[in-house]
User: Which sequence fits this backbone?
């Protein structure tokens, strides 16, 4: 962890050249409670060696984009990471080694990735969520409560909409909502999830939780949780109008994590919704 004394917490942003990376960097720069101290990109990126501000089309910031994550993490208090699973697990190991808070917004993580992150969390605070927005985390809580209140006469379907460049499906948020619904019914999501329907599938199984993924245009992110019986429907919905909601949530998590004991946390912890 960086020796910052009375200085503001120093934040490193990984995947700095991506749309989310640039938004995260700007959010850190705009926040009076934080300092941007590093920007990491994959080896081979044409941003390597460039000043981050200039690369983003603005004034120089004095921060050079690097592929040396080890050096960048050594001088920071937190890392915010919306990259890819293979990179994220490596960053988790580095965060554990240097004792900095690791905020993970990466989706598409496999069970073995999650297990590796859990190992790293024994040495440092790791905050991981499929979605960093306040609204989505409130929706997660509502989904759990409604699923708990309604029996299996109500089918549960989760429909998510994203832009045409998203590479994983269902989205991390959809899976987070599915987990919440399964917890509400006290079942394992793995045992009741219907993640793909095609052809003659037969009738829908009672008690299952269905997922549908829609990809098109520039949709930022929309999620519906449908509870449908023979006579009525309840639809819970969240629509993200601007990606800044994710950046603001991630930055809030990075600040909240300062001084926290090693362990795995999520945005419900950050927002005080797990109390």
Assistant:
């Amino acid at each position: 962890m960086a020796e910052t004394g009375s200085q503001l917490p120093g934040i490193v942003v990984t995947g700095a050249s991506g749309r989310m990376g640039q938004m995260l960097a700007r959010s850190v720069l705009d926040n009076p409670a934080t300092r941007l101290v590093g920007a990491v990109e994959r080896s081979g990126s044409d941003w390597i060696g460039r000043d981050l501000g200039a690369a983003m089309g603005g004034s120089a910031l004095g921060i050079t984009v690097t592929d040396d994550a080890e050096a960048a993490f050594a001088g920071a208090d937190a890392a915010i990471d919306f990259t890819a699973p293979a990179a994220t697990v490596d960053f988790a190991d580095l965060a554990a080694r240097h004792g900095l808070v690791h905020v993970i917004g990466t989706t598409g993580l496999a069970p073995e990735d999650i297990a590796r992150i859990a190992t790293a969390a024994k040495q440092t605070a790791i905050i991981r969520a499929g979605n960093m927005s306040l609204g989505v985390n409130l929706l997660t809580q509502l989904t759990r409560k409604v699923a708990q209140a309604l029996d299996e006469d109500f089918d549960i379907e989760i429909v998510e909409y994203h832009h045409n460049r998203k590479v994983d499906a269902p989205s991390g948020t959809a899976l987070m909502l599915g987990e919440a619904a399964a917890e509400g019914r006290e079942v394992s999501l793995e045992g009741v999830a219907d993640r793909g329907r095609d052809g003659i599938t037969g009738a829908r199984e009672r008690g299952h939780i269905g997922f549908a993924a829609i990809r098109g245009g520039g949709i930022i992110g929309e999620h519906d949780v449908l509870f449908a019986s023979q006579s009525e429907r309840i639809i819970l919905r969240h629509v993200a109008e601007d990606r800044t909601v994710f950046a603001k949530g991630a930055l809030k998590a990075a600040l909240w994590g300062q001084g926290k004991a090693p362990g795995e946390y999520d945005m419900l912890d950050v927002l005080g919704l797990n109390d």
Observations:
- The first helix runs from residue 19 to 30.
- The chain has a mean pLDDT of 94.
- The two ends are 28 Å apart (CA to CA).
